[in-house]
Task: structure prediction
Amino acid sequence: MKRTLSILLALVMVLGLTVPALAAASDTAAPEAEDEYAVDDMMPEDLEEMPSLPAPEEEQPAEQTEMEAELTDLILRVKATLEVDNQYDDLTSDYHDGVTPQWSLTWSDAGRQMTALVRQDGTILSADYWEESQDNDSFYGFDPAFPTLSADQADELAQEWLDKLLQGEESARVDGSYAGTGRDGYYRYTGVVEKNGLPSPVTFALIVNSRGLSSFYRSDSYSGYVGRLPEPEPAVKKAAGAKGLAGAVEMELYYVSDGENEGRARLRYVPVGPYAVVDAHSGETVDMDALYASFGGGAMAAGAYGRAPEPMAEAAMSDSGAYVTEAERQSISQYGDVLDGSALDIELRKLTALGLDAFQLQRCSYAMAPDGETIAASLRYVTEMTAEQLYGCSQDSFQQVEAAGGELTIYKDLTADAKTGRLLSVSTTYPIYERDEAVTMTETNRVRAAENFIGLAAPELAEQAALCTLSGYNEGERVTFAQVHEGYFFPENSLSVTVNPGSGTVDSYSLDWDEDVKFGPADKVIEPEAAKAAYAGALDVTLGYVAWPLDITLEENAVYADLLAQGYTYVEELHLAWYYEGKDAVAGVDAVTGEAIVAEDAGEQTYTYDDLDGVAQAEQIEALARAGIGFAGGRFEPEAELTGRDALTLLLQAAGQSVDKWDDGTLAEQAARHGLMPEDEDFELDGTLTRMAFIRMLLRPSRYGDAAELLSVEADRGYSVIALALGMDVSEPEETATRADAAAMLCAFMSR
Result:
């Protein structure tokens, strides 16, 4: 291929040199020859008379609608912040209406994609970048590796992106990371978005890799807070805050599963009291659960609080090099012929079966389909239930709700093609579930209708489920079917359907299906007060901002009347308060030992150990720990003999699996899936492994496995040669391996 290309280039050069030479020879051979097209003989006027192609006129873009202009401005802001280049050939843009209008923007071309969720003011709420791997290596076996980016480089890069993405009074600090393994390693950072230097309810997750920003997400991506941000200086001291918090602690005593020992459980005092905070200005201890419950579960609206970010200066946009590309212009133009909410409303009202005559259109949002051409419009319709029009609901129930000042709004959510008005979907939510007896569906018919539906929606799961008769289930119109195993319900696996008693149609459907549970005995039990003290002592009393509901049904909050009209009953502000930090991480207090139980993170986690002093392999053990590979409990026990269970735990974690080392069935299944289960008949999970046995487990499912087998004409010579080349210590192969030996070998493999 390279030789062919060289020949082609040579030909081009030869032709480039030959043409002028031929022209010169022609002029010399026949200088007197008249040629009406000879350039040398032409006068300027002759040149002007020569036929020529018309110069292309610069296409003037049509005048933009207001929606197109706003989208254009937003795209330029986002491109400048996220450093989106101009080479993408497609843009999908979806608009989400609501209290805080948002756009979802997706740039894509062959091999890469950038998606961003952005508030109307340009605030980046989430961003995801994907790029097809440039590595042509097609090996998909056991192939874990440390990220090519160093931890220090990743920390610096992550902080740079946080500083770009968070503006104004918001900030965040890089504080430790989770190193993801694989062919394209990454570093994941999580933390709290601080406001005025104090923690807030807003959290973030950010991922960087060797290519830069991979992902960013804020917990307030679909919500926010209203009102002005309080000043950070408290009127109430920390001691008073701690006293108020300790007085609000409530605990119950019952059995919980012991995650370290299969089939066993320990008696534990578990916090069951309310989520309490101490107002940092008034000193009042507030039961936040009760405060929110006082709104009766009404709808909550949340909007951006405080000052809107300053618009990005035109110069800043120009400096970024961002401009509206042709692909982006085409995406924007897709909104040029969408029907606005009013036009869609007219089309949908022609469908009289929807019963929209008494409803008002509340909002209209748009979403672009994957084909880049179809745009779906989501419309919400509302109406107030009245004594004259109950929609088949109970008269008595209506009067009770009306007297209590409760929510009486009916919502109809419709989805339609935004360009044609064609109806795509409908769902209806009623404020009163009790219906008039004349239109109420009998329980038998309701269950039959729901059962028929799940038989069509999820037939394979419906065969394993039955109508759940446990307390708390099927008390309203929602019909729940739970998994049955050996005659007993497992309600964590369930399918739920809501059937409209008047129409017999399905109003909602949800599915939750997973597995596993455990339990066991106890001895002496500490007193409740001792448990409360131990629990409170395990928590840090922290000053920060907390979410606080604001009742917008009150006259003094009339500024939010538009939200009230949309069915909201409260908005959220941020208040300064003292609270227990990490409350969810403390699962309770061991009823026998009196020790506080810190819950393990079920997802990504790193490990720390207190028994590595003087251990030769400490550096490798800690490198694995930062990548989420290790053992829980704070001790690595480096000199402990390596068991099959230990080996599979380390190797599966390296493969990116979440591992329960005491679940034999799942452990074996995961190992088999990754090719890690040894073929030796005498392999036992609780048996010990030699150093060579671990090397075989490590290399056999990897890219080196075939070569190791091929070279192992005598004993395990092939495995030894490859292991040595990878930097592993292959001395004393038949000696029983220790945990430290295994960590060093795995670390060498992942550092290749």
In short: The chain is about 30% helix and 25% strand. The chain has a mean pLDDT of 79.
